[in-house]
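This follows on from our talk about sequence and fold. Please put the record directly below this note.
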Amino acid sequence: MASHGYIVTIPPMTRTRPHTSRKTLGVALLLALLAGGCVERTVSITSEPPGAVVWLNDEEVGRTPVVVPFTFHGVYDVRLEREGHRPLWTKAKTNEHWWELPGPDLVAEAIPDGKSETKWHFTLEPDTGVDPDALVDRAKQLRDESTPKPTTLPPDNGAADDDTDADPKAGDTDTATDDNSPSKTD
């Protein structure tokens, strides 16, 4: 084959629109991840009757019904009090979902408006209205029952302070307290 002397130049590759749209998509995804919301974790606490004061880990958080945000899952100390009812002291655990475990949580954190809600409901018992005087009387009764009673000794009838007992009918005859010892007689 003979060459006709044409020189063919091939222009360098240029970026085309599909590559630019992938870059734009990557930037948009990165911004969405950065601007995306965190998972909002809350505990919704209700009680029967409503209106009880609630403490979580010794911090007052409000009156029932109340919604409290939290950061970490786990067991919380819970205290509820309401006038006319017995105070309630207990522990409660938050619900941890599989998607909040290490690994899947990275994806879950990037989802906007993600929510994790735990619901706790407590029933308060009515106060029995214990009479303070009756309580003190009952405490005294229990104390008396648990205290040992002193034993009573027979009267000594004017006996001397030695180891022998005097028999007033026998006159000056002394008897030893030990059954094995001989008796003294005059």
